[in-house]
Amino acid sequence: MQDRVYLLLGQISHDHVFIIIAHALLAIAIIFMMARFATKKMQLVPTGSQNILEAYTAGVIAMGKDTMGEENSRRYLPLIGSLGLVIVVSNLLGILPLFEAATSDINFTLALALIVFIYYNYLGIKKNGVINYFKHFMGPVPALAPLMFPIEIVSHLSRIFSLSFRLFGNIKGDDLFLLVLLMLAPWILPLPAFFLLFAMAFLQGFIFMILTYVYIAGSIMMEEEGH
């Protein structure tokens, strides 16, 4: 386990909760600064940070387009794009010396998963009504309802653990992997690993976003799914 005394914020307090919250707030502050720089001087032909964030926005929309159509993809872009930025920036912070990824803590990833879980169920109930939404959990044949309903409930609850533990496990594993390499050979051996961890930081954000799109699409497009 990473010794918190070697973290930059660990010099202020060794409390793990404080360190995770501080790194999460730092990631959010970085995102706000990126947004500020990108929108400070908007140009018709984007350059610099504006170009990066516009490309990111277009990529997130394209990601959800095949799942729920462009209109819905744009509608839920603020939530999914924000989640993706928080996850990716947090992951990248964990690669830097003296910092720790907030996503390496299960409580943080669980909070993100609960946001997705509550939101997509809220959308499903709002669009279809309580009865129709949970009626969908009972399967196509009424006779199978006593079997299908508990299975569907467990399946939806398992999404909380799937989202949170997948992200937590991968980022925590990456942190430990990097720590071992730094202990064995602090100068040369970790260099290729940094590139791998850099790619994994973006990959985990992508997986979280695409699954959020899939869950939202499943809750608001039940009629299309039935056909």
Structurally, how many domains make up the residues?
1
How many strand units? 0
Rg on CA atoms, Å: 20 Å
Percent of sequence in beta strands: under 5%
Shape: globular
Report the average pLDDT across residues: 85
Low-confidence stretches: none
**What is the string of SSEs from the N terminus onward?**
HHHHHHHH
Binned, the helix content reads over 70%
The chain-level structural class is: mainly alpha
**Number of helical elements:** 8
Distance between the termini: 50 Å
* Main β sheet profile: none
Describe this protein's structure.
The protein is mainly alpha-helical and 227 residues long. It has one domain. The protein is 78% helix and 0% strand. The chain contains 8 helices and no strands.
Describe the SSE topology.
Elements: H1 16-40, H2 48-75, H3 77-95, H4 106-128, H5 130-135, H6 145-184, H7 190-220, H8 222-226
Task: Write a brief structural summary.
The chain is an all-alpha fold and 227 residues long.
List keywords for this structure.
227 residues; mainly alpha; 78% helix
